[in-house]
Design a protein that fits this description.
There is one protein chain. This protein is of the alpha/beta class. It has a single domain, classed as Rossmann fold (3-Layer(aba) Sandwich), CATH 3.40.50.300. It has a five-stranded parallel sheet with strand order 2-3-1-4-5, sandwiched between helices. Helix 4 packs parallel to helix 6. The longest helix has 24 residues.
């Protein structure tokens, strides 16, 4: 039986984090979040962390070359071969998507599915404002959402052109949304 090799996409506030945990619990796959990997590199003060911290603070993207290297290394580990993977935060660019395709091919694997968790901008904005965090001003939220849109549109096209894209309605209770994800992942994967 082949394991799940899945990508999840979604705006900030889409519930992507919560659903990622549930997917990994249900399918037994490894959660690989490049944002988490970079944040832990920054905390640990590694060379990568020093290089990435300014870019991250400015809301920019770490270079494709760096990201592709990190992900290639992580995906080559045994737990991924044994359990499969849910990629969260990668790929962010078409170049990274091409690299992912190559990395998996070299491992004798291929991508199963890319789930796009769709929550309207208006809804995620309300959710984020509701959290009341200091950096969540309406302007900052708008800026981050615009950036996400710009970055993600070509990626959605990339996945769609390979018939890998499944858009899932992310509005509803956690259970409702998870049931929708299961309905697209299960037939695609196992
Ligand atoms: P995230 O938690 O996924 O929003 O990632 C936090 C920050 O890490 C992003 O704003 C980027 O600066 C950086 N980052 C994470 N994943 C990537 C990626 N695949 N490509 C480039 N930069 C990334």
């Amino acid at each position: 039986m082949t394991t799940l090799k899945m990508v999840i996409l979604g705006r900030q506030g889409s519930g992507k984090g919560t659903q990622s945990l549930r997917i990994c619990e249900a399918y037994g796959c490894v959660h690989v979040s490049t944002g988490d990997m970079l944040r832990s590199a920054v905390e640990q003060g590694t060379e990568l962390g020093r290089q990435a911290s300014q870019t991250m603070e400015a809301g920019g993207l770490v270079s494709d070359e760096t990201m592709n290297g990190i992900v290639a290394q992580r995906l080559s580990r045994r737990d991924i071969a044994e359990r499969g993977v849910l990629l969260d935060g990668f790929p962010r660019t078409a170049e990274q998507a091409n690299a992912l395709e190559r990395i998996l091919y070299d491992l004798g694997e291929r991508l199963t599915v890319a789930v796009n968790l769709e929550v309207p901008t208006k809804t995620v904005t309300e959710r984020m404002l509701g959290r009341g965090r200091g950096d969540d001003t309406p302007e900052a939220i708008q800026r981050r959402l615009n950036l996400y849109e710009q970055q993600t549109t070509p990626l959605l096209q990339w996945f769609d052109s390979r018939s890998l894209l499944c858009t899932v309605d992310g509005v509803g209770t956690e259970d409702e949304v998870f049931a929708r994800i299961r309905a697209v992942v299960s037939p695609a994967g196992r």
